[in-house]
Amino acid sequence: MSFFAYKDNALHAEDVPLSAIAEAVGTPVHVYSAAALRHAADAFRSALRTLPAARFAFAVKANPNSAVLRLLAGRGFGADIVSGGELRRALDSGMAPAGIVFSGVGKTDRELSDALDANIGQFNLELEEEGRVLSRLAYVRGRRAPAVLRVNPDVDAGTHAKISTGRRENKFGVSIADAADIYDRLGRLDGLHLHGLALHIGSQLSDLAPLEAAYRRVGELILELRARGHVITRVDLGGGLGIPYREEDHIPSLTDYAAMVARVTAQWNVGLTFEPGRIIAGLAGVLMTRVIWVKPGTAAPFVIVDAAMNDLARPAMYGAYHRFAAVQPSGETMVANLAGPVCETGDTFGTNQEIDRVARGDLAVFHATGAYGASMASSYNCRPLSPQVLVDGGRFEVVGERAIPTERAA
Ligand code: PLP
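Above: inputs. Below: predicted complex with pyridoxal-5'-phosphate.
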């Protein structure tokens, strides 16, 4: 189900023609659909509703826009954060502190302190020393920090190497082989209320088998920890489910995912936490752009658009594909190289790709940019951060301004 569809040969976001947004706000612009966000959020929760004491923490890194977070808070989502900035954003957007989970391999003392003072619901510890520091910070406040230990299950998620997080050589979590001993030591600290485990093996996963293998390893660890006398009440299963960037991409259904989780965790007797990001926001956004030039090339012409790698980094970073489509297609196609104006050859969205035929001045979109789109943007080449617009039915609102970080001359 897409909330970006053609009506009278003009691409709309819900009931709003994209050309109206371009006219009002300019391009490039990130456009989100509120209905798509609601749909994805409700589908995720509903698929997993039968699991015990399930909690849902949206991975803020996927899309930290305040309007998006506010909408998700209203759908029962908390937040999975990885920085003090994301903590601030989640709180300012109305996320309940108790629903905030703090992941991340490099939390500073300042960030840990601020999160403690905000009374967040869960710290996901990534190394033993972090647990000791957090315990001290909590103890001097007369508190016990609610914490779980993130384990690295040493499973290859079968996704792009740069977004794989669950192999032994990755920086995340503690080795599952050492986890029980580390848990013993951290479990004795006065400033921690250590009550479970967490894992997250990677993003844009298209196969449930690695997830299942990782979850099973965690299941064995739960048994081991209980045998050592620990009380395990919560396991955070992370995020990672992929979305179809190409029509032919095969992504497991939420129903299959929920059935797998139910099967694997049936005897765990814990509450489960989920940290979905991409699957909630990815298909709820497009990046709209205008063609600046169609420039002759050797094998194919270059379609130079006004969006660039600073607006959408995934193609340059991971060779990722985002479908390009004209806002008012002529029905004809062309083979072209798609590039932005940034002074890097890597500022390329596609090579020798068959696309809708476009000409100078035409509007087009890159699809499925609602997650890891604006959130990974930069102002490289002194380009402004592109605005963000939220469409809801027949209305739209600017929810992020076009802005360039300012500096002062010395
Ligand atoms: N949780 C953690 C700890 C992550 O690092 C990430 C992203 O990499 C996520 C959740 C969200 O992943 P996804 O957007 O693939 O669901």
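The mean pLDDT is 96.
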